[in-house]
Specification:
The chain is α+β, with helices and mostly antiparallel strands. It has a single domain, classed as 4'-phosphopantetheinyl transferase domain (Ribosomal Protein L22, Chain A). The strands form 2 sheets. Strands 1-5-4 form a 3-stranded antiparallel beta sheet. It has a two-stranded antiparallel ribbon with strand order 2-3. The two termini are about 20 Å apart.
């Protein structure tokens, strides 16, 4: 037996890692504006944090798209990529992003992230919604 899943929205985003790396190098304060302490700590564990940060940025943008909004609708810190038990990516959503999700009756999220040295991509599915 399969359970029906209602989707509110889906978002996808891609980030060019070398370009993102250059932007972070030119604007050092941008890291703290875009990423939570947990996201920065996770990425810092790797010799090259740029692909992981680019992937997390893609998740934040894909989350906006899944809610049907664009840049400026909520702060980047309102969406944090977290690791679920077993290592799968998940979302912690607060602030204005949580308010927007609440208005759409979002009850859960699905996140898929991938990256190479050149590209980072993310897909976010907002689940729930009114029946």
């Amino acid at each position: 037996m399969t359970a029906a899943i209602d989707g509110v929205g889906i978002g996808i985003d891609a980030v060019e890692v070398p370009r993102f790396r250059r932007v972070l190098a030119r604007r050092p304060g941008l890291r703290e504006r875009l990423f939570t302490g947990g996201e920065l700590a996770y990425a810092a564990r790797f010799a090259d944090p740029a692909p992981r940060l680019a992937a997390r940025f893609a998740v934040k943008e894909a989350t906006m798209k899944s809610l049907g909004v664009g840049l400026g609708a909520f702060r980047f810190h309102d969406v944090e990529v977290v690791r679920q038990p077993g290592g799968a990516p998940g979302l912690s959503v607060g602030g204005r992003a949580s308010e927007l999700a609440g208005r759409l009756d979002v009850t859960d999220w699905r996140v898929s992230i991938t990256h190479t040295d050149l590209m980072a991509e993310a897909v976010v599915l907002a689940l729930g919604g009114r029946r």
